[in-house]
Specification:
There is one protein chain. By secondary structure, this protein is α+β, with helices and mostly antiparallel strands. The chain has a domain at 1-54 and 310-374: Uridine Diphospho-n-acetylenolpyruvylglucosamine Reductase, domain 2 (2-Layer Sandwich). 52% of the residues lie in helices and 10% in strands. The chain is built from 17 helices and 12 strands. The strands form 4 sheets. It has a 5-stranded mixed beta sheet with strand order 1-2-8-5-3. Strands 4-12-9 form a 3-stranded antiparallel beta sheet. A two-stranded antiparallel ribbon has the order 6-7. A hairpin with a 2-residue loop joins strand 6 and strand 7. The chain starts with a helix and ends in a 7-residue tail after the last strand. It comes from Actinomadura yumaensis. This is Cytochrome P450. Its cofactor is heme. It holds the Pfam family p450.
């Protein structure tokens, strides 16, 4: 469906104000295809599982780089998210060992250590914005766990620069294109921040290249492949893009998980009961998360209702047709996990938080296809850290249930953002109590 001029203006304003609900409204009004804009600002939205399957099954028709052009100044030319073809596949293969079970367990331990330190600082009666708290906590643990103590010592300054750079990227694609096209303070702050990030990361790469032992973290794994495996630029892009992808989306997912669970007294009670019965005071490390199936359902349901990556963008590499609509080479194409995850034809009561929908023993259970439920993408482009992200959500929820009594103060929170769908205005809780962790047996 081609929108009228009035509808285009309304849609563009809606995308900038709150992209997730605006896309859902656009889908309800236009069906599986909606097109608006012209020239370099033309956007084609493809909605629903059939569109997702078309996109992921016809990779040669699309370029990832074009769809995420605005990420290139921060993530880098060779980052996994923005690269295509053999170069992407080679770099993904080199970093894949850093996301197997044993390293993931180590990263999760670092996160739980940061969480416990954060909880130790809380006091009864205190009001906490969990979204900003989780961002700082996840960023610190990501930098430390992935790239070691030297870079972790600079995580606060690094984080401030990342925030300036990411601010530009959380506008809608049309607004991003305008901000990138003309000089403005937002673009200037982002450019200066990226320059400082580059200096810090490249200095650490040089230091680690000259060290006798490259270490066992992600950077160490990449350096262990040998000097010819990855250039300094490839290493820089991998470091920065993994930090951004890890903390930007994970902190949003954690905030939405608390919002969803603490908004539902019955679900909160079931989760707390299972954690108390099966874990007691044991920390929720990777090896024991399998004992908490209800929190696994909570995690799946949170990622359905609030997928941090709520949309994905591509550039059409060639002309194609879908659902009776022609798309020209060079046009931007956007699909939406958020829209797909809330389609009534796929999901019963799609706006209801219902963890039990993921109970495979439930009568009438139907497992969604990978094109109906895709919080981390599909196939070869699936998020490389998806297993870690799921474990982080479940583990943080379990630790909060073990150690805290919280009252959710934020209500009717709106989603916003583009690179990651985060809660507008933050996620505020009141701390009613904090318990000291039991000694690890």
């Amino acid at each position: 469906m081609k929108l009228s001029a009035l509808e285009e203006l309304r849609t563009a304003r809606g995308l900038d104000r709150s992209m997730a609900p605006a896309m859902r409204e656009l889908s309800a009004r236009s069906g599986p295809v909606a097109q608006f804009g012209f020239g370099p600002l033309k956007v084609t939205f493809l909605f629903g599982p059939e569109a997702n399957e078309f996109l992921f099954s016809n990779a040669r028709k699309f370029r990832w780089r074009g769809g995420f052009e605005s990420l290139v100044p921060l993530a880098g030319e060779t980052a996994l998210l923005v690269s295509d073809g053999p170069g992407h596949d080679r770099r993904r293969g080199l970093v894949q060992p850093a996301f197997t079970r044993e390293p993931v367990a180590g990263y999760l331990d670092v996160l739980l250590g940061e969480l416990d330190a954060t909880l130790d600082s809380w006091r009864p009666g205190q009001q906490v914005d969990l979204y900003s708290t989780f961002r700082a906590m996840v960023r610190a643990s990501t930098v430390r766990g992935f790239f070691g103590p030297a870079l972790a010592a600079e995580h606060a300054a690094l984080g401030a620069d990342l925030e300036d750079a990411l601010h530009l990227l959380n506008f809608s694609p049309p607004r991003q294109q305008l901000l990138q096209a003309v000089p403005n303070p937002v673009r200037r702050r982002a450019r200066d921040a990226i320059a400082r990030i580059d200096r810090r990361v490249r200095a650490e790469i040089a230091r680690r290249r000259s060290a006798a032992d490259p270490g066992g973290d992600v950077l160490g794994v990449l350096l262990a492949h040998g000097e010819g495996a990855m250039t300094d630029t490839e290493l820089r892009d991998m470091v920065v893009s993994l930090i951004v992808a890890s903390y930007d989306t994970t902190s949003a997912a954690l905030s939405w998980a608390v919002y969803a669970l603490w908004s539902d007294g019955a679900a909160l009670g079931k989760a707390a009961e299972q954690v108390a019965e099966r874990l007691g005071g044991r920390p929720p490390v990777l090896g024991v998360l399998r004992e908490l199936p209800y929190l696994d359902w909570v995690t799946s349901e949170t990622l359905r209702l609030y997928p941090p990556a709520m949309a994905g963008a591509r550039t059409a590499a060639e002309d194609f047709a879908f659902a009776g609509h022609r798309v020209r080479a060079g046009d931007m194409v956007v699909y939406s996990q958020y829209v797909t995850h809330r389609l009534p034809r796929i999901w019963t009561d799609p706006d209801t938080f219902w963890p039990e929908r993921w109970d495979r023993s439930r009568p009438g259970y139907r497992h969604p296809s990978s094109y109906e439920y895709l919080p981390f993408g599909v196939g070869a482009r699936r998020c490389i850290g998806s297993n870690l992200a799921r474990a982080e959500v479940a583990a943080v929820l379990a630790r909060l249930l073990q150690r805290t009594e919280l009252t959710l103060l934020s209500r009717d929170v709106e989603p916003t953002g583009f690179t990651a769908m985060y809660p507008k205005g933050g996620m505020t809780v009141r701390v009613d109590g904090v318990r000291t962790p039991l000694p690890t047996p």
